[in-house]
């Protein structure tokens, strides 16, 4: 079925284009643009791998390994698939690397804050501007008590006779690979591209992009030109999609953007206190940018609203983008510097460029000019 | 050229009102043409080309377009095809598209849907 499409793709741009198909449950979509080699075979293999990962790691499918683990009691050895096991091992390393700014075990907090996949499907604002508010937000005490059973130290992972197991020390411990599974899947797809002699490709799983090789236009190699969507106004409220900036990337790198304007809901608090609750939860157990004052949760202001991370591993980009939003501008920038990844970090008022990111057409894609540039991390606290 | 003619030309004003009007009209024309050519498209558009004839729709406006061989859906920034009457069904299998540069193609019906974006970017990040 892809053969006909492939022929057309070659005639048009040289790339065989595969439109968005559902990758993971919910609205996580996979699309690809592939040039050279055996594109159709590579695409089908990639779809297979993504499907395997979804079967093992979905939190919304009752039959997934992660769902079984989440429903299990303490000290029960739960057999999981190889992907699920490897993602956990990788996630545990990243949790240590980011000092817990990324944490695959915050599912109980995500549920408490209604930012797990199921709750967000109910509460995220619709494009026509209407929204449904949850009845309440958690109390400070509820957050404190949930923090006690969050953390990768509550989970043990081991191999036995060629099988993989996860076991938890407390029945309330739950996993959510939402901040890493897309990136892990993209990294697996890149391995497949190498097997099929692909010369250039662009893969994307709902915002986890990978630029494989150089961009090729009429036989000439060039850099990929990538736009970063403006985080304001929040996209669910309008379909306005200006770019805050654009950059060029040589290739063989992944780029991921995370922000407070994706997967969020609006809580109608007391009086006219409208609280924007993003899906990213900080190590203190509170969604990024929220503070508790005068007896209620409020938006604090200068939190990270958009973080783009560029580097070799898509899983690591995925994790770091989340971690940067959780950590804030200065600590987020320090983290990227520490691990040697590039990035663009925006708060409501300021932005910082970490590493050698080449901005593209700064007069055309100039949304960033509305933000004050921070050159020195130490002054950006 | 006789002396009279030279005198008349020397006496006449270098620019008349009509000259000024012509200059103004030309300047306005140049302005409008450059605006048409160089303006950034205001938003992504969905271009449906059937047998060489194109129609343009806004990606930001939900629509259901019933055509002879299929139905094109534009909803919440996504475009997809249903009810295709051709045998291979490639257009339906393509799934949903939402980003500039993506297309859905139906060769048997000589039919292409393309999303045109702003500017010359190869990809965009951070759309939800």
Structure in words:
The complex is a heterodimer of chains A (about 375) and B (about 130). Chain A is an alpha+beta fold and about 375 residues long. Among the domains of chain A are: about 1-60 and about 180-215, no CATH class; about 220-250 and about 250-260 and about 305-380, no CATH class. In chain A, about 30% of the residues lie in helices and about 30% in strands. Chain A contains ten helices and 21 strands. Chain A has helices spanning about 1-10, 40-55, 65-70, 80-95, 105-110, 115-125, 140-145, 180-195, 315-325, 330-340; strands spanning about 15-25, 30-35, 80, 155-160, 165-170, 200-205, 210, 215, 220, 225-230, 245-250, 255-260, 265-270, 275-280, 290-295, 295-300, 305-310, 340-345, 350-355, 360, 370-375. In chain A, strand 6 (about 200-205) and strand 7 form a beta hairpin. In chain A, helix 2 packs antiparallel against helix 8 (about 180-195) and helix 8 runs antiparallel to helix 9. Chain A is globular, with a radius of gyration of 21 Å. The N and C termini of chain A lie far apart (about 55 Å). In chain A, about 50% of the residues are buried. With about 130 residues, chain B is α+β, with helices and mostly antiparallel strands. Chain B has a domain at about 45-115: mini-chromosome maintenance (MCM) complex, domain 2. Chain B is about 25% helix and about 30% strand. Chain B has three helices and eight strands; from the N terminus they run H-H-E-E-E-E-E-H-E-E-E. A four-stranded antiparallel beta sheet of chain B has the order 2-1-7-6. A three-stranded antiparallel beta sheet of chain B has the order 3-4-5, with no helix packed on it. The longest helix of chain B is centred in the N-terminal third of the chain and has 22 residues, at about 15-40. The model of chain B is unreliable at about 40 (pLDDT under 50). The interface of A and B includes residues 20 and 256 of A. Strand 10 of chain A pairs parallel with strand 8 of chain B, so a sheet runs across the interface.
């Amino acid at each position: 079925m892809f053969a006909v499409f492939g022929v057309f793709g070659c005639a048009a741009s040289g790339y065989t284009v595969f439109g968005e198909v559902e990758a993971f449950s919910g609205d996580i979509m996979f699309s690809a643009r592939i040039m050279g080699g055996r594109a159709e075979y590579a695409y089908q293999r990639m779809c297979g791998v993504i499907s395997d990962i979804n079967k093992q790691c979905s939190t919304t499918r009752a039959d997934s390994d992660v769902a079984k683990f989440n429903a299990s009691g303490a000290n029960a050895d739960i057999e999981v698939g190889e992907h699920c096991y490897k993602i956990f091992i990788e996630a545990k390393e990243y949790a240590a690397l980011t000092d817990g700014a990324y944490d695959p075990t915050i599912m109980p907090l995500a549920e408490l804050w209604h930012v797990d996949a199921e709750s967000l499907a109910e509460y995220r604002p619709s494009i026509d501007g209407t929204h449904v508010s949850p009845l309440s937000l958690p109390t400070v005490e509820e957050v404190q008590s949930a923090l006690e059973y969050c953390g990768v130290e509550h989970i043990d992972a081991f191999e036995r006779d060629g099988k993989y197991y996860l076991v938890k020390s407390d029945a309330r411990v739950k996993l959510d690979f939402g901040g890493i599974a897309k990136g892990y899947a993209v990294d697996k797809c890149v391995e497949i591209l190498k097997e099929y002699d692909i010369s250039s490709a662009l893969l994307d799983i709902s915002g986890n992009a990978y630029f494989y090789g150089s961009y090729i236009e009429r036989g000439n190699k060039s850099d990929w030109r990538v736009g970063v969507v403006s985080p304001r106004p929040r996209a669910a409220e309008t379909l306005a999609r200006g770019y805050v900036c654009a950059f060029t990337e040589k290739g063989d790198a992944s780029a991921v953007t995370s922000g407070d304007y994706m997967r969020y809901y609006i809580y109608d608090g007391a009086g006219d206190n409208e609280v924007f609750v993003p899906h990213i939860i900080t190590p203190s157990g509170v969604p990024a940018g929220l503070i508790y004052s005068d007896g209620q949760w409020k938006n604090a202001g200068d939190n990270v609203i958009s973080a783009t991370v560029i580097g070799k591993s898509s899983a690591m980009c995925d994790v770091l983008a989340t971690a940067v939003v959780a950590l804030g501008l200065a600590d987020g920038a320090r983290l990227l510097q520490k691990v040697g990844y590039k990035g663009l970090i925006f708060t409501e008022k300021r932005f910082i460029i970490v590493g050698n990111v080449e901005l593209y057409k700064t007069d055309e894609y100039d949304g960033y000019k509305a933000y004050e540039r921070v050159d020195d991390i130490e002054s950006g606290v | 050229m006789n002396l009279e003619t030279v005198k008349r030309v020397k006496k006449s004003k270098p620019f008349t009102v009509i000259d000024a009007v012509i200059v103004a009209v030309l300047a306005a024309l140049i302005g409008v043409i450059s605006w048409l050519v160089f303006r950034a498209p205001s938003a992504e558009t969905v271009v449906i080309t059937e047998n060489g004839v194109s129609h343009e729709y806004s990606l930001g406006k939900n629509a259901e377009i019933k055509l002879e061989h299929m139905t094109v859906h534009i909803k919440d920034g996504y475009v997809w095809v249903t009810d295709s009457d051709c045998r291979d069904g490639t257009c339906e299998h393509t799934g949903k598209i939402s980003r500039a540069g993506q297309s859905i193609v139906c060769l048997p019906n000589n039919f292409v849907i393309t999303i045109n974006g702003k500017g010359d970017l190869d990809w965009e990040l951070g759309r939800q």
